[in-house]
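Aim 2 progress update. The chain analyzed this quarter is reproduced below.
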Amino acid sequence: MSDKNIIIFDTTLRDGEQSPGASMNTNEKIQIAQQLEKLRVNVIEAGFAAASPGDFDAISQIAQAVNSSTICSLARAVDNDIKSAGEAIAKANLKRIHTFIATSPIHMEYKLKMTPDEVIKRAVRAVEYAKTFVDDVEFSLEDAGRSEISFMKEITDAVINAGAKTINLPDTVGYRLPNEISSMVEQMYKFINNRAIISLHNHNDLGLAVANSMAGIVAGARQVECTINGLGERAGNAALEEIVMILKTRKDLFDGFDTSIDTKEIYTASKMVSTITGIEPQPNKAIVGKNAFAHESGIHQDGVLKCQETYEIIKPEDIGIQNNDSIVLGKHSGRAAFKDKLAQIGFSDISVDQLNASFERFKILCDKKKDITNDDIRMIITDEKINDNKTYEILSVQISDCSGGVPSAVVTIKHKDQEFTDASIGDGAMDAIFKTIDRITGYNGTLNDYNVKAVSEGKDALAKVTCKVTFNDDNPPMIGHGLSLDTMIASARAYIGALNSYLLMKDLLNKNNSHQI
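Predicted structure tokens:
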């Protein structure tokens, strides 16, 4: 490995999931993990095994579903956490435990209520115990951005001697400026002297996460912890796509620096994460935003038409956006052309069942919509993959919402190869649909959040609905996704998707009832 090879540590499934509303079920996490593997991410932080049975199960399944990326679980410097992490990643081909403890004066005094000596002893114990499960142990100095260099050196020396191979220096609250991060990394790099890899985990509270990561790379850091779309707690994390494309685009400044990332998978990864979490990047988001390669100014349009490089420093195709498609899909297109198009836009590995189901949905869409866009197809495939668990499936929805009358809905649902039809009235058409679903399934849900967006432009755009539903007051809200030209049908599919996720979680909890975390 080159001394200038930058290890990409993706924490979308762990820190990214801590974004409000970004919770994912196990199936969705596996889908993202497999896309991260296609992206050629070096380390995938799959979750926090001790957090819940759901997290433990997701990490365990990801460990078996991914082969070429290292699978990592976070763990506090606590024996029980470390044991859960070790057991969760046990079947991974490549595995790592990432343990941490706070090292800033404010955290040690008020949060941990521990002396510096006690913190060092706890850290050493954590690394030594983690080494009994894996050879690859990473140690994080939580809130390193506000820690004292002298103490950072002392605890780092101790954990390296205990067996830590990577030392992570998180700017946990996003407080530091690039020159401060550079100075911190430079001092730690000279002190560590190649005994371990220095890693950075920068938060974006001041909008400097990526800039701080780049400054740290120049100063000696060789691993960066980041997320797809910059997803993460509070203002988010350093965005993977921005770091990777800076290194690729500005080789004049970052001479010799490189990553293993397949940049042509970036756009697919971005779309998948935004679809599953329901959190879209802002339109002007660098690299993956809707407007990242859009030109409205006449001067800009003229320049790009004459020479792309006049106003674009990155080619859209470099991140997987296909602008010049030779095959235009429509209602007369066959399965082979459809499959070829999927390969073009990054979905060459879908199962036969998913291909067949997606093709049928595509043909139905063609009868109702004149122009089928790549985003339409991409959304159909993603929706089919994340809704692969179809305990209940919406077959049809009929609404009666005459002016002055009482809104009602007739819904047909498939469950275990049987069809069930019922009807309800409600305060509105959507309320009637949800009440009918509750009557048929026997589960009463409470809608916590609802969001609808158009997949593309025009009156015939697909509606993408994301909703959060609570089915028991003592359980967290479940996220559901629905897609249709009809917003009401999309809403019904999203609601039933949330129910399916709830039932999956309930089944998982029952199976893991004996597992103590």
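The first strand starts at residue 7 and ends at 10. The chain is about 40% helix and 20% strand. These observations will guide the mutagenesis experiments scheduled for the next reporting period.
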